[in-house]
Each structure stands twice: as C-alpha cells, then as structure tokens.
Amino acid sequence: MNKGIIGIVGGMGPDAGIALAKNIISQTIAKKDQEHLPLLLYSVPGAISDRTEYILGNEKVNPAYRIAQILKEIESIGVRFAAMACNSAHAPQIFDVILAELNKNYSKIKLLHMIRETGIFIKNQFPGRQKVGILGTTGTYYTKQYDLINESGLKTVYLSKAEQENLHFAIYHPVYGIKSNAGRITEETGTIVNNSIISLISKGAEIVVLGCTELPLVFSDSLYNDVPVIDSSLVMARALIKAHSPEKLKPW
Asked: Which of 116, 166, 210, 237 sits in a 20 to 30 Å window from 20, CA-based?
C-alpha cells in the first residue's frame, strides 16, 4: 500500500526545516536506507514572509498564502502528511488561513498542528506534570498560541515581557541571534536561552517547551536538572511518523 510521502514546509528558518527532517530520520525504526520513510523537505526561505513580523503587524503579507501554495505543490507530487517547521506559523491568523486555502482547493493533505501534538505528547509522556513553561518568538508569546495545550489539561507558564524581549533577541538579533549565525551558536544566545529556562522553572514550570523550532539548536538536552525540556520539532517528527507508519516509530 502506497502511504504517500511525508512533507516538510521548511525555510522558517532553514536550519529548522533540516532539524525536523533529521528528527524524522532519528525517530524511525530502520536498519538500512531502504527502510526509512519517504520524505520531502521544501525550503525556499525567500518566498515566505516572516511569521512573527506579520503577527506583530510589521509585515503586510500573510505568509499563509505562500505556505498553502507550497502545500498544494508538494501534494501534487505525492505528499499526504505534512508539517511546518515553525511554531509561529501555527498562530490562528496564519494556520486557519492555510486550512481555508487548502479546503478551497479540495486538498486532502493532512497538515499536523505542532502545538496540539506537543500538548498530547506531554499529557501522555508526563502525566504527573501540569505546569508547562513556553519559550518561543514574540509572535508566539503575544498570540499565546500554546494555550491550546490547556485543552489537554495543562497550564502554560510564560516569561515576563522584558525576559521575552531578550529571548526574541536571542533568535533575531542581527549580530548574535540564531538566525544570523547559521551553524554557530554565540555565547550571548546560549546565556539568554539558559537564563530563560531557569526563569520558567522559578515560576513553577514542571516542563519547558522549546516552542521555537530554532531553540533546540541552542539547547539540545532533554533535561534541565530534573525538569524535562521538550523539543517541539522532535514531537512533530514523531507525530508525522505515527501518522504515516506507526509501526516505524521508535519507542520513547
């Protein structure tokens, strides 16, 4: 039975798309090349406007339209299950428009939702923990899109506005930010991310979610002291494998 191809809309940023693809490979049960799942990464960074800038009102073009177009393109060559390697793209003003565009064109592609999948994952894997600290872009912060995980009986914890501004700089700063230093993590960024995790734990977080797909490039450990740190990209990778071929998903 042909189950189709797993598709990734990348380029938001480029490293995040590659990281999601690598996570799919690492979480797949396979002993040789031919046992891995069919995977397509579509990364055209210049074609998709910045998600956070749109959410904050600094960008007029909704990235949803180009993302929907990409999804239709990759569906035409066999993609049946897809994900976006960007948390901010799941803000309602973007994600809902993508779904509307797909429905308008009678698309049958299954687009997974990173935030909902993260909530389900936490509830299943850490049933004794409720307070979840969220790290992400300022767009994710102000839309409070991770409050969706409250549907799973969880409670979100956020940084203060000043702390969030520092974290946003760690991602976007033109000198030391993650986006401007592809393949290299600066000391400033590492310090800010580390301090942000400490702050969330001090506010009562029992789990911390790296709710920007580029943050795991800075902090790759699964624990901070005894507090689980969840990579939303890894969660999405596992959800894609489960949707496509559940028997190929490695145990957690």
From this structure: 166
Overall CATH class of domain 114-232: alpha beta
Ranges of each domain in the chain: 5-113+235-248, 114-232
Nearest to 61 by CA among 50, 72, 71: 50
pLDDT confidence band for 239 (50 / 70 / 90)? very high
DSSP 113-139: -HHHHHHHHHHHH-TT--EEEEE--HH
The SS3 call for residue 66 is helix
ω into residue 190 within 30 of 0, thus cis? no
Tell me the pLDDT of the chain averaged across its residues.
95
Closest CA to 217 of 175, 237, 250, 189: 189
12-32 burial: b if 16+ Cβ within 10 Å, else e: bbbbbbbbbbebbeebbeeee
CB 214 within 8 A of CB 13: yes
Q: Which CATH architecture fits 5-113+235-248? A: 3-Layer(aba) Sandwich (3.40)
